[in-house]
Amino acid sequence: MTENLRVLSNFIGGKWVPAYSDKTEPVYNPATGEKIHATPLSTPADVNDAVQAAKSAFVSWSKTPVPRRARILFKYQQLLVEHWDELARLVTLENGKSYDDAYGEVQRGIENVEFAAGAPTLMMGSQLPDIATQMESAMYRYPVGVVAGITPFNFPMMVPCWMFPLAIACGNTFILKPSERTPLLAQRLAELFTLAGLPDGVLNIVHGTHDAVNGILEHPEIRAVSFVGSQPVAKYVYEKAAAHGKRVQALAGAKNHTIVLPDADLEEAVRGITAAAFGSAGERCMACAVVVAVGDIAEPLLEGLQKAASALKIGDGSDRSVQLGPVIRKAHKERTVKYIERGETEGATLIRDGREDQAAAVEKGYFLGPTIFADVTTEMTIWKDEIFAPVLSVMKVDTLDEAIAIANQSDFANGACIYTNNASAIRKFREEIDAGMLGVNIGVPAPMAFFPFSGWKNSFYGDLHVNGRDGVEFYTRRKMITSRL
Ligand code: NAD
């Protein structure tokens, strides 16, 4: 029932307009179970309105001098910094993550805007004055046109900021379809961009779920689609967008492994893994889901992890002392509980049971304490599937080769970490592991805005990744001119 809730509007051509459909989905505060707003479930007709607005804005935006576009990005960066605390609180409200995690997420979003503000350099072409006698060649860079972004619930600020600031800085106009579960941040991001001087129609927001997504994927005038979300949807978006002639980059799910060697700094490993496994309630694509302990370190490591997990304060993330907030929805908590039951029946040893934490018994709010399984094997579902919750699997092997072989068996290959001070082990890990984002003695090796976010295998569908030079290539097309002068 969403009848008394404020239904969010779409943002099209600089105006907040109601969606055509009166179907909605409630937006909850996951810490209290309270319904705070309703997301309209837009249709392809809403998407089409946004495309027409974006198309007409493209005519002048694409011709706006690049330094002038960049100046709006600089102003936007200032406004985001000024509203940092407000944005972080909004992330916590709709996503549930702790204030500290939310604050860090806002920082990551701002860094993307800072990178995009370098558009005058990023948009440069190149030339060779002497390709033959009295002949020269030059490459010019242009925007692609109307482009769209479809984003997940787990980073309502950072992930949209992977997309629209750079796309817009490159001269494109943009349609954002935020997660229906965390739509509020997108609204605020658009308001602040408008305040920074962004012309109407350059950034548009269409709320909704699969109907809106299909409207984007099938629309002939959308040239490129950036997607971040779960693996099956990423694959679907990749295939369908490509079938409709679009560029597509689709970032998908993960099951990241952390290898701990016997010489590792135990305290550092426990601290980093605890933050990576249970931070943001395990709802990070770079979360540590599996620890592979090599040799004798397994016992003290398990002991340390159990102790550190039990010391985490669980609760409403808006309380600044809380470290572990709720998962996103009741259904997600129930799904996670099923995975824990499955882990037990498949023979893993439950070292710490998050179902027994006091907070997990609270009826309102979707809390689950940190859960740790030992004796996990690659046959088990808890090893194979992305659980996306505060559940950590621990395995024990005798050698680094075995640890790498286990990680490489996963269908996913987003990130992988190693804790050791042994240079040749680090080199071996770097050369042999199948994953796109590696960490050495750190828990969450998420690359910064000026490098690509570089998942492999089923963690990514496409060619050019988001961020860095990849992002610039994705959001631009090139013209080559060869001249005899
Ligand atoms: P999700 O796939 O449920 O939703 C992502 C987007 O797709 C949303 O906007 C949603 O409305 C839309 N969508 C959902 N089902 C759809 C369908 N059937 N047809 C068309 N559109 C649909 O993902 P989520 O639960 O919001 O986010 C969590 C997932 O995102 C995890 O798997 C996580 O690993 C992944 N993720 C990956 C990265 C990365 O960089 N690889 C980053 C963040 C999150």
Automatic annotation (TrEMBL):
GO biological process, one term: L-valine catabolic process
EC code: 1.2.1.27
Pathway membership: Polyol metabolism; myo-inositol degradation into acetyl-CoA; acetyl-CoA from myo-inositol: step 7/7
Binding site for NAD(+): 153, 177, 180-181, 386
Catalytic reaction equation(s): 3-oxopropanoate + NAD(+) + CoA + H2O = hydrogencarbonate + acetyl-CoA + NADH + H(+); 2-methyl-3-oxopropanoate + NAD(+) + CoA + H2O = propanoyl-CoA + hydrogencarbonate + NADH + H(+)
Cited InterPro entries: Ald_DH/histidinol_DH, Ald_DH_C, Ald_DH_CS_CYS, Ald_DH_N, Aldehyde_DH_dom, MeMal-semiAld_DH, MSDH_GmP_bac
Residue ranges of domain Aldehyde dehydrogenase in the record: 16-481
GO MF annotations in UniProt: malonate-semialdehyde dehydrogenase (acetylating) activity; methylmalonate-semialdehyde dehydrogenase (acylating, NAD) activity
Top-tier EC class: oxidoreductase
Residues annotated as catalytic: 285 (nucleophile)
One Pfam family this sequence matches: Aldedh
Keyword terms of this UniProt record: NAD, Oxidoreductase
Subunit (UniProt): Homotetramer.
Family of the protein in this entry: Belongs to the aldehyde dehydrogenase family. IolA subfamily.
Xref: NCBIfam families: MMSDH
PANTHER family to which the protein is assigned, alphabetical: MALONATE-SEMIALDEHYDE DEHYDROGENASE (PTHR43866:SF4)
HAMAP family per the UniProt record, alphabetical: IolA
Stated role: Catalyzes the oxidation of malonate semialdehyde (MSA) and methylmalonate semialdehyde (MMSA) into acetyl-CoA and propanoyl-CoA, respectively. Is involved in a myo-inositol catabolic pathway. Bicarbonate, and not CO2, is the end-product of the enzymatic reaction.
Protein name: Malonate-semialdehyde dehydrogenase
Originating species: Sulfoacidibacillus thermotolerans
Gene that this polypeptide is encoded by: iolA
